[in-house]
Amino acid sequence: MTPVVNYEVQGEVAIITLNSPPVNGLGFKLRAGIMNSYENAINDAAVKAIVITSAQKLFCGGADISEFGTEKMNMEPVLPTMLPVLEESPKPIIAAINGFALGGGLELCLACDYRIALPHASLGLPEVKLGILPGAGGTQRLPRLIGPQKALEMIVSGNPINAQTALDLGLIDHIFKTDDFLTTAIEYANQLIESKAPVKSCADLSVDIKDLPNNFFTDFRTSIARRTKGFFAPERCIQAVEASIELPLAAGLKKEIELFQECAVTPQARAQQHLFFAERAAGRIPGLDPKMPLRDIKSVGIIGAGTMGGGIAMNFANAGIEVKLLEIKGDALERGLKAIRNNYEISAKRGKLTSEKMEKSIGLINGTLSYDDLSDVDLVIEAVFENIEIKKSVFQQLDKVCKPGAILATNTSYLDVDAIAAVTKRPQDVIGLHFFSPANVMKLLEIVRATHTANDVLLTVLKTAQRIKKTPVVSGICWGFIGNRMFEPYGREATRLVLEGATPAQVDKALTDFGCAMGFLSVIDMAGIDVGFMAREGIRERLNHDPSYQVLCDRLNNLGRFGQKTGRGFYIYEGRDRLEDPEVIELSKTTAKELNISQRNISDEEIVERTIYAMVNEGARILEEGVSYRSSDIDLVFTNGYGFPAFRGGPMQYADEVGLDVVLAGMKKYQSELGEHGKNWFEPAPLLEKLAAQGKSFKDYQA
Ligand code: 3H9
After folding, report:
1. With contact defined as beta carbons under 8 Å apart, do 671 and 683 qualify?
2. Which atom of ligand 1 is nearest to 80's Cα?
């Protein structure tokens, strides 16, 4: 077995090379290996300096997250006790950072005396994204090295900085542009030996606060309040950095550990770590060889220059991929291209991209009015009106003009991709690519694997999704796929609760208090009540046993109250204000009376349980039917496409955390308490019953 640490001595320099693929995660073995090598170096009188570097393409991805919550995490040596030992080393230690140094990986570097890096190195403390804080000195040593302001920014955002910024901030000592970094690092160590360079310890430094503005921490808290609402870890990160100012290093480290442990045991930490692994699992398709040859995607055609088509075009142009944007009419095309330019200009004005990059991206998007111009593109994405006949006729045209092997994708959000594929002579090349609006912003891309979609088509679009910086999740065929299918029962309960006596504002507030980015009723007012109405057209038949199903939405639609765009929906919109509308409350009363539904006071708890459990129950069906490969895929859909709070890890993780027996009991309770509605809609999914009976969670389920 290859050792996880290589140790060698060259002259007076000991070299400790981390070699634990894939990311040098600081698990028990690697930690022990580092400390054994360190002791060898200390005990060898010939060694005058120590270099720590990596045999992998990155330096170190930090603590091994898969050890969290297990015994291994606490097996000595643990990072918080081993790093002070390195820091107090009598021989200088040089961290030679050859790529990413993240979390515990950067904390390891901070405990070294000197830090050198290759130009592409990237340094960061992303722990906050895992629901924790840097727990091995990051919150204490970083402020001592680069000041509290920059340190706080890095720790609370979790975003890494590049080598040049690190050099400018004094986080590293040198950048070396070299093909032989190890030789350079050894030379650097020899120079330090020769110049009798001192060993350094952060314990000798205090945090420089002379330029710290008054009320810095209060203002910082205010500035992040919206972005971090509901998250537990960011406030603990701030408290830890405050401690770095107030306390000497050893006491600060103690405080950091306390705060770290507070975070580490929260459901939020489990949820955010679940999402980390979920993102990586989503690209793995059972039964498919990830090494199979892929199709080349150099150019893309997009049908429809509306908001969706334009947003999709921007994704590809941003990734340097040429786009042909097709519209039927010249003025629509012109409007679409203008809107794209406008979007870019807004981003440029906000400093999000340079004007050079903007022009380059715009230059990659060319309009056309002719299908013939799509004859040489590698991938076409149709983004026309959500109507199966229109989509079929587009695919018939594409089948005629596109080259053999081109991938033909539909951006449908509900319709049957098999039926669309069936109008072509190449169903193996057809797939669904469901982007979310605004498509240039939203991370989620639902990839719909149709019955005949070829394996290499599926893998090619998964890779392409990564190129355009999307989070792809594969769904099978069904109405609404994973996202909209589960959003439907969620929305059904939200609107039904209004019929039963809650106000729209109460429903929305209960959901935003739960952590959702917006309440459902605000969401559909924004998306368009008419859009939901049309989407329901495809499932009317299976809904008509319930006369009260979405009746309020249908009535609002028939009144022309389509939501924000008409100034009225569930709410009234006055400028930027969203106001409760007495007419809607009255409408809910009269409709309830008509349908024999008695209105009552409804608790926020009931609102959350009914909406979320109904959604989870549908998720269980989706899993059991094999529409989704794993529950974590479902969680990615909701946290990346529907504003479900990341700190809850997605609906399925939330259910796992609450306990499936509790969710099942909730379903049964509402099934028996809500009369016809309960009977119609709260029948527990067989998989939920099965897993709850076995004391298992959705995470345990393998199709
Ligand atoms: C920490 O350090 C706490 C300390 O402050 C205190 C401790 C007391 N652990 O992303 P990739 C796996 S918390 C375990 O596709 P890339 C990953 O799951 C840690 N596993 O590669 C995947 O496995 P699989 C703070 C990890 O090249 C494989 O490695 N650090 C870890 O695109 C490849 O990953 C972070 O939050 C880990 N730390 O990107 C950094 N990291 O193949 C988290 C990765 O089975 N990591 N894996 O699916 C990253 O951001 C990226 O992985 C990185 C490489 C940029 C490093």
Report:
1. yes
2. 8
| Ligand 1 pocket residues where CB is under 6 Å | 22-23, 25, 58, 61-66, 79-80, 100, 102-104, 107, 126-127, 130, 134-136, 138, 277, 280
Do 257 and 123 share a structural domain?
A: yes
Instruction: Kindly name the residue from 39, 87, 88, 127 that is annotated as catalytic.
Output: 127
Reply yes or no on whether the pLDDT at 188 is more than 90.
Answer: yes
What's the confidence (pLDDT) of residue 78? 97
Catalytic site residue from 39, 87, 88, 107: 107
The residue to mutate among 4, 20, 23, having the most atoms of ligand 1 within 8 angstroms of its beta carbon, is 23
The token pair that represents 424 in the structure block: 């072509």
Q: Output the CA 66–ligand 1 centroid distance in Å.
A: 9
- Do 360 and 442 share a domain, yes or no? yes
| Beta bridge mates, 435 | 445
Please tell me the residue having the least CA distance from ligand 1 atom 50.
Answer: 61
Q: What is the mean pLDDT of residues 1-30?
A: 96
pLDDT of residue 175: 98
Q: In DSSP terms, which residues pair with 122 in a beta bridge? A: 100, 162
Indicate which atom in ligand 1 lies nearest the CA of residue 136: 6
For the chain, helix, strand, coil in percent to 5 are 55, 15, 35
Q: Whose CA is nearest to atom 51 of ligand 1?
A: 61
Let me know if 107 is a catalytic residue: yes
For ligand 1, atom 1, the nearest C-alpha belongs to 63
| Residue 216 lies in domain | 5-264
Residue 429 carries which DSSP code? G
CB atoms within 10 A of CB 342: 11
Test site for ligand 1: of 34, 65, 106, 469, most ligand atoms within 8 A of the Cβ: 65
CA of 64 to the centre of ligand 1 (A): 7
Rounded Cα gap, residues 649 and 653, in angstroms: 5
Q: Residue 412: give its domain's CATH number.
A: 3.40.50.720
pLDDT per position as a tens digit, 560-600: 999 999 999 999 999 889 999 999 999 999 999 999 999 99
**Of 243, 273, 271, 272, whose CA–CA distance to 257 is shortest?**
243
- From the CA of 255, how far away is ligand 1's center (Å)? 25
pLDDT digits (tens, 9 = 90+) for 297-353: 999 999 999 999 999 999 999 999 999 999 999 999 999 999 999 999 999 999 989
Instruction: Using alpha carbons, select from 178, 107, 183, 180 the residue that is nearest to residue 145.
Output: 107
Q: What SS3 state is found at 172?
A: coil
> Is residue 547 domain-shared with residue 680, that is, in the same domain?
yes
pLDDT at 219: 97
What is the three-class DSSP state of 4? coil
Q: Residue 7: enclosing H or E segment and its boundaries?
A: strand 5-10
Together in a domain, 469 and 499: no
Say yes or no: 514 and 636 in one domain: yes
Is 334 an active-site residue? no
Interval 189-213 mean pLDDT: 94
CATH of the domain at 648: 1.10.1040.50
Q: How far is the CA of 440 from the centre of ligand 1 (A)?
A: 27
Does the pLDDT of residue 454 top 80, yes or no? Answer: yes
pLDDT of residue 534: 86
Inter-residue contact 477 to 417 (CB < 8 Å): yes
Q: Are 355 and 344 a contacting pair, CB within 8 Å?
A: no
- State the chain's mean pLDDT as an integer: 96
Indicate the number of domains in the chain: 3
Q: Which ligand 1 atom lies nearest to the CA of residue 66?
A: 14
Residue length of the chain: 703
Q: Tell me, what's the pLDDT at 539?
A: 82
